[in-house]
From TrEMBL:
InterPro entries noted in UniProt: TM7S3/TM198-like_dom, TM7SF3
Signal sequence region: 1-26
Bilayer-spanning residue ranges: 291-312, 319-340, 346-365, 372-393, 405-423, 430-450, 485-505
Entry protein name: TM7S3/TM198-like domain-containing protein
One cellular component term from this protein's GO annotations in UniProt: plasma membrane
Pfam families membership: Ig_TM7SF3_N, TM7S3_TM198
Protein species of origin: Mythimna separata (Oriental armyworm)
One record GO biological process: negative regulation of programmed cell death
Residues annotated as domain TM7S3/TM198-like: 298-503
Highest taxon listed in the record's lineage: Eukaryota
Key words of the record: Membrane, Signal, Transmembrane, Transmembrane helix
Subcellular location, record wording: Membrane
Entry membrane topology: Multi-pass membrane protein
Length: 569
């Protein structure tokens, strides 16, 4: 229900807005827009206002007082959720565009009437209309459009796929000199984006976001540049964050004025948006809606808390989950790469395989009982998480990393280095792994409930591994909003608490529990434990406990910490 705010809730706001912004409630009417406001370099907007279309409507828009120094106008109309149509006929031909974020270029040598049409019966559509004026040197947005159905397409097309969003425009043209587009792309284009607040599908932030990115002033202030990663120049690919709206804008600058400090000629395309999901399909924007996912999340949270605070003490359980999570991620990626299975079927398959992996790792510990090797897997998991954060935080314009080979080499390097770094201090490493990974699992579950974007730390890596062309995607996660900050702070706090607690809880115990088959004679051999940090730990412990230095392996024999029951130990 969140998707479609009803009139009841927001009608008061709407009425106020109608009153203050001079809205025209129209079914069939004619309006004339005066365009004698003077423009500045930063803000070339001549007019902007809301228009309300009641049911099936047809509004004719005329322009008056057009400043003679203008060469062309960009007329734009934005509606929320309902599609509208713009049409216009002049000596250059007929242009008809349909959709939600539309625009037309009107040359001032022949100003024609623009028709705004809505054929949504019984539906009131609010439309924001705006007119921008440009001069002779300014490039024409979409002037060299090759693909879209109109000659001049000054608008952005956004296509939302499950994993990424494509933003595409028609190439701009230089106005007076090159209307025939012999040399398209004569102008530079810069793409920008701005996130709306998470899980907010109301029309107010939507319109405010669009209005912000309509002028160069707003774009420079609030927009984040989307770097060019691969050809074509007219397209950008972005990682999708379902439920977080984004507004996209493009600024074209004339190549003849490439001096960055003295850009005199530019034009701004009509901005467009994406919620990272299909907003008409209520399910696709909400990650958690069915009871099964709720239960899974609850399970994840409980497991996470347990590992965070008791992971080291219940070593076998930890071993199982380390194997389980590695198994889920590896088999998810492998299955997705090898076969074409849809996502709902992938997860159960990966889970089954994860249980299998968990079992194998648990068995491994049970059979061999070498702590240093057992800790390797949690360390690698921690390395994976760190490398994923590294990818998540990576600025998008490193062409070197667009190559899969380079990327995965670096990724695995970061992962192994992390594992190696913690590996040398196995006991502390294992507690760190438990605390960090357990806290991550806990906040991951919270993250799903809250609709923040922490989960994309992992999801982006899986996308990179399984989605074709994802190497060209700009990651730019929305991570500065209160939900994300809250979740990250919670992760930090839980991790620290978990570490301190486990450190205290395991004080005076041998660093690792005896392997399950503690009858193994080799265990009491000092040689098994001659791994730097561990043996020194062994030597320290007895001193702390009894005040006298006992033999290096005595504690194990003297105080056998047998684990309690089956898996839960
Ligand atoms: C709008 O203008 C058209 C022609 O310019 C005219 O036929 C029509 O009656 C006008 N409609 C209204 C509501 O004034
Ligand atoms: C625009 O022109 C109209 C009439 O010509 C005038 O009333 C109005 O004040 C002008 N507005 C501006 C901003 O110059
Ligand atoms: C036309 O626009 C130019 C530049 O914005 C401005 O200097 C000039 O005064 C405007 N002319 C009129 C008649 O408004
Ligand atoms: C624009 O729409 C109006 C109303 O539907 C229609 O009368 C007119 O013929 C259309 N013009 C073009 C060029 O399609
Ligand atoms: C519009 O409303 C009328 C009366 O309320 C109803 O008869 C008609 O079926 C509705 N049309 C649509 C397309 O919903
Ligand atoms: C703007 O984006 C919406 C949703 O992503 C899409 O439906 C619409 O067609 C786009 N507008 C244009 C002009 O392509
Ligand atoms: C750029 O400037 C040169 C000479 O100054 C001119 O010949 C050319 O047409 C200009 N190109 C554009 C796109 O304005
Ligand atoms: C900026 O460029 C314009 C046109 O190319 C030129 O007339 C003007 O002197 C330049 N200004 C500066 C500060 O470089």
């Amino acid at each position: 229900m969140k998707m479609f705010p009803t009139m009841g809730g927001s009608s008061l706001v709407l009425i106020c807005l109608m009153y203050f912004t001079g809205l025209v409630a129209a079914q069939d009417s004619n309006i004339t827009i005066p365009l004698n406001k003077s423009i500045t370099y930063e803000n070339k907007e001549l007019y902007g206002s809301y228009l309300t279309l009641n049911g099936e409507s047809h509004v004719r828009v005329d322009f008056s007082n057009v400043n003679k120094s203008l060469y062309f106008l960009v007329f734009q109309a934005h509606s929320y959720m309902s599609s509208i149509t713009l049409n216009m006929t002049n000596k250059y031909g007929t242009s008809v565009v349909m959709g939600t974020n539309l625009g037309l270029v009107i040359f001032t040598d022949e100003i024609s009437t623009v028709n705004v049409l809505s054929d949504n019966k019984n539906v009131t559509v609010r439309v924001y209309i705006s007119v921008h004026g440009y001069e002779k040197n300014d490039p024409i947005p979409g002037g060299c459009n090759m693909e879209l159905p109109v000659n001049i397409a000054p608008f952005l097309t956004t296509l939302t796929f499950p994993d990424y969003v494509l933003v595409e425009v028609g190439a701009p043209s230089a106005p007076a000199t090159d209307r025939t587009c012999i040399t398209p792309l004569q102008a530079d284009m810069t793409f920008y984006m701005m996130y709306l607040s998470e899980q907010n599908f109301y029309s107010e932030p939507y319109f405010n976001g669009l209005r912000t990115l309509m002028t160069l002033e707003g774009i420079k202030k609030y927009g984040k540049e989307i770097p060019f990663i691969s050809i074509p120049y007219t397209r950008r690919r972005l990682s999708a964050y379902p439920g977080t709206g984004a507004i996209y804008a493009v600024v074209a600058t004339s190549k003849n004025f490439t001096n960055k400090d003295n850009l005199t000629a530019y034009s701004v395309y009509v901005p467009n948006y994406s919620y990272g999901c299909n907003e008409f399909d209520e399910d696709s924007c909400e990650m958690i809606d069915d009871w099964l996912s709720q239960i899974l999340c609850l399970g994840l949270m409980i497991t996470g808390l347990f590992i965070c605070f008791f992971g080291h003490r219940f070593f076998k359980t930890e071993m199982f989950f380390a194997g389980f999570f590695s198994g889920v991620i590896i088999s998810y990626i492998l299955i997705a790469l090898v076969t074409v299975v849809d996502k709902p079927a992938l997860l159960p398959a990966a889970t089954v395989s994860g249980i299998f992996f968990g079992g194998i790792w648990w068995l491994f510990w049970w059979l061999y009982g070498i702590p240093v090797l057992a800790v390797l897997l949690p360390s690698l998991n921690l390395g994976f998480l760190l490398a994923s954060i590294f990818y998540y935080r990576l600025p998008g314009n490193i062409p070197y990393l667009a190559s899969d080979f380079n990327f995965w080499t670096l990724f695995i390097l970061v992962m192994l280095l992390t594992a190696l770094a913690v590996f040398s201090v196995s006991y502390a490493a294992n507690i760190i792994c438990c605390a960090v990974l357990g806290a991550f699992a806990t906040v991951l579950a919270l993250d799903y409930y809250m609709g923040s974007n922490l989960k994309f730390i992992i999801i982006n890596v899986i996308r990179r591994a399984t989605v074709p062309s994802f190497n060209q995607a700009f990651i730019a996660p929305p991570d500065t909003q209160w939900r994300d900050v809250a979740v990250a702070v919670m992760w930090l706090l839980l991790g620290t608490l978990g570490f301190l607690f486990q450190h205290w809880y395991n004080r005076g115990r041998p660093p690792f529990p005896p392997p399950p088959r503690s009858v193994r004679p080799s265990i009491s051999e000092p040689s098994t434990f001659s791994y730097g940090a561990i043996s020194s730990y062994f030597r320290r412990r007895p001193t702390n406990q009894q005040g006298t230095v006992v033999g290096s392996v005595t504690p194990i024999i003297a105080r056998p910490y047998t684990e309690r029951t089956g898996l839960l130990s």
